[in-house]
């Protein structure tokens, strides 16, 4: 790594020129500054939700919505393209447009090398009590609002690692107004975020949510690390009460 790159490290975050320097140096791989999907090996149109139990390997095919799944808008309550049973794994999948509500995890799940070319309502939504979610590899683009929506009950955790995101609102949001609320913990590592983008994480400090970030690369623009909210269980819009690492709920290393 060049001296210039080292000088731009800020508490585990690489910003601006350092990200460019790493691209030139070849550190971090070919996708450092963009959430590019690999070339698709084929295309499948889903007109109803695909239920997944066990492991589904999409072999890098592109999946798009058709029929009732073909709206491609931001309406709440849409059905997903994939619904993962507790313990399921979805891997090597490209989700194109229209993407409906992406992926729903009903409990513990793994998303490995899943790419969203144009996020619909959300890329993925997490549910279940005590659910452990791992997002490993992959990337997402064009998320008008959230990429990952965390509606889980108590227990478990979400880990997002070696993931790339660009043109997005929030990479991760712990539900701010679900009817049943709980503490939610998320770990982000090896994330490359490319502008335009709003913030990586939104968490509810009054419920004890935590976010731990490391190995974050911010490439261009003014992308925040954490937004801190006071969540509720009434359905009201949650109030933002702070931002940035606070050493307690949002920790950067």
Automatic annotation (TrEMBL):
Pfam families attached to this UniProt entry: Pectate_lyase
Enzyme category, top tier: lyase
Cofactor: Ca(2+)
Chain segments annotated as coiled-coil in the UniProt record: none
Region annotation (Disordered) ranges: 234-253
Localization (cell): Secreted
Keyword annotations: Calcium, Lyase, Secreted, Signal
Role played: Catalyzes the depolymerization of both polygalacturonate and pectins of methyl esterification degree from 22 to 89%, with an endo mode of action. In contrast to the majority of pectate lyases, displays high activity on highly methylated pectins.
Protein's name according to its UniProt entry: Pectate lyase
Species of the source: Phytohabitans maris
Lineage, uppermost ranks: Bacteria, Bacillati, Actinomycetota, Actinomycetes, Micromonosporales
């Amino acid at each position: 790594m060049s001296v210039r790159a080292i000088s731009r490290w800020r508490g585990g975050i690489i910003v601006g020129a350092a990200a460019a320097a790493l691209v030139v140096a070849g550190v971090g791989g070919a996708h450092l500054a963009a959430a590019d999907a690999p070339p698709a090996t084929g295309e499948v149109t889903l007109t109803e939700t695909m239920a997944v139990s066990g492991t589904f390997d999409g072999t890098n095919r592109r999946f798009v919505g058709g029929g009732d799944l073909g709206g491609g808008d931001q309406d709440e309550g849409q059905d997903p393209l994939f619904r993962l049973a507790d313990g399921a794994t979805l891997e090597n999948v490209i989700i194109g447009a229209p993407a409906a509500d992406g992926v729903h995890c009903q409990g513990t799940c793994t998303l490995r090398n899943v790419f969203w070319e144009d996020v619909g309502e959300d890329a993925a939504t997490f549910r279940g009590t005590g659910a452990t979610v791992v997002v490993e590899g992959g990337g997402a683009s064009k998320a008008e609002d959230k990429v990952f929506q965390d509606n889980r009950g108590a227990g478990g955790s979400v880990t997002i690692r070696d993931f790339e995101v660009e043109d997005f609102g929030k990479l991760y949001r712990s539900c701010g107004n679900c009817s049943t609320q709980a503490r939610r913990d998320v770990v982000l590592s090896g994330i490359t975020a490319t502008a335009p983008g709003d913030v990586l994480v939104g968490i509810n400090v009054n419920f004890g949510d935590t976010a731990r970030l490391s190995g974050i690369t911010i490439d261009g623009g003014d992308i925040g690390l954490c937004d801190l909210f006071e969540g509720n269980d009434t359905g009201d819009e949650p109030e933002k009460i702070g931002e940035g690492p606070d050493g307690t709920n949002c920790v950067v290393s």
